[in-house]
Amino acid sequence: MALHRVNPEDYSQQLQQKAARLCERFREYTDLEPEVFPSPPSHYRLRAEFKVWQEKGKAHYAMYRQGEYKQPFIIEEFTVGSELMNRLMPQVLEAVNASEVLRRRLFSAEFLTTLDGDALVTLIYHKKLDEEWEREARALQDRLGFPVLGRSRKQKLVLERDYVIERLQIGDRTYEYKQVEGSFTQPNGEICRAMIGWAKDACQDSEGDLLELYCGNGNFTIPLCEHFDKALATEISKVSVASAQENIRANGITNLDIVRLSSEEFTQAIDRVRPFRRLRDIDLDSYDFSTVLVDPPRAGLDADTCAMVARFPRILYISCNPDTQLDNLAELSKTHRIERFALFDQFPYTDHTETGLLLVRR
């Protein structure tokens, strides 16, 4: 995570400047002003990883500026982190520094928290974790009131659980998500709620079926299902697919199927280029897809997936990289126009911008 200056008093002005830059970049494709969804100005980040800098027998949380990995930036405060994270950080560090077993060869600490008040602490080592470590870690776990997990090379020691449960209030319904340590989750909880709410609003009065690529743990798919007859979602990560299946059951969803396929593989499947055993229980011909939701990694959509997506009447395109989204728009704009345009400020005080587009066939 990049180091940056955090001053809540400057946040509104910085966000206005970010929105103005985004408008200019997308001006070739739309005259719409973006719907701007601001982040809380502080305590907005739900997960974070810190390096542990050890000096004179004492551990410190640290980060590094890019290219300066031998010059740590010691973390004395972390106001961008959730309030729960800020309560746990000093307790963990105090326990680590009071225990040679917990401190020795510790090189990283990760915190995963939720808006709903759950948390998981992961300690990562350059040593094998033994029974002595487990005893000390369990004592820390009891003190924190939240689970502690240990990792080292080829070793994962789960003392209680390796996940948190998040509950998000979207409109008049609460959705429950299992979020597994090490898998992707949205780092800014309030922006996550805003993104889901915006997507649901864009799907009001939809007809037909929904396809989602890169669905993760079902973060978007599960709330959107109520607006469609059926939904099919794909994800390549085994851990995320397993979480999505559990989240489907936890939320009582009955019209959604998840399959473990990459976007490239699904494109091959729907174009009948090759069959996939993972689709043996899915009848693609039974779907009447009207909308596709894509939330790709920073690389954006590959050319074949972009061409496949262009065949849908409506495209919801969430992006963490406007550069590659604009590259894809060069093709998608030939068949679709932008009907809605949104800015989600996932990472305040940085140049990072996340966008949402609703594209409708011309």
Overview of the structural elements:
With 362 residues, this protein is an alpha/beta fold. It has two domains: 208 residues, Rossmann fold (3-Layer(aba) Sandwich), CATH 3.40.50.150; 118 residues, OB fold (Dihydrolipoamide Acetyltransferase, E2P), CATH 2.40.50.1070. 30% of the residues lie in helices and 29% in strands. It is built from ten helices and 17 strands. The strands form three sheets. An eight-stranded mixed sheet has the order 1-16-17-15-14-11-12-13, with helices on both faces. A seven-stranded mixed sheet has the order 4-3-2-5-6-7-8, covered by helices on one side. Strands 9-10 form a two-stranded antiparallel sheet. A hairpin with a 5-residue loop joins strand 5 and strand 6. The protein starts with 10 loop residues before the first helix and ends with a strand. The model has no long low-confidence stretch (mean pLDDT 95). Keywords: Methyltransferase, S-adenosyl-L-methionine, Transferase, tRNA processing. One of its GO terms (biological process) is tRNA methylation. This is tRNA/tmRNA (uracil-C(5))-methyltransferase. One of its GO terms (cellular component) is cytosol. Its EC number is 2.1.1.35.
